[in-house]
Putative DCC family thiol-disulfide oxidoreductase YuxK (Micromonospora jinlongensis), 139 residues
Amino acid sequence: METSTFVYDGDCAFCTTCAEFIERRIPTTARVVPWQFTDLDALGLTVAECEEAVQWVGADGARAAGPDAIAKLLADSGLVWRIAGAGLRFPPVRAGAWPVYRWVARNRHRLPGGTAACALPQEARERLYGPAGRPTTGA
């Protein structure tokens, strides 16, 4: 793989708005692509992984998801963004970033730019949050 890839949910208007912000404002060398139009097998990703969180596949094959993927994207960007990425990797910040990311993912259809199509599929919601809607353990 010659370049890193940041993969998001192209069916979600909120996610697409965020991806457009990245393309306009964050000077990254990574490809920013919706998973629906990407060869997931070539990237070593599954649909389930892409439904649950944004994904990063580095040029070296290293993978990350959710806020860890965002930190990798920022680390691949201009100086100010690299500093933000380093902050996101700082252990106490990273520990708090996952619950915030999961909340955003669970409520993305309610956020600015979100639509009903942004709601996670039931199977993905249950994998992430359990049948009662509470977060499951682990990252």
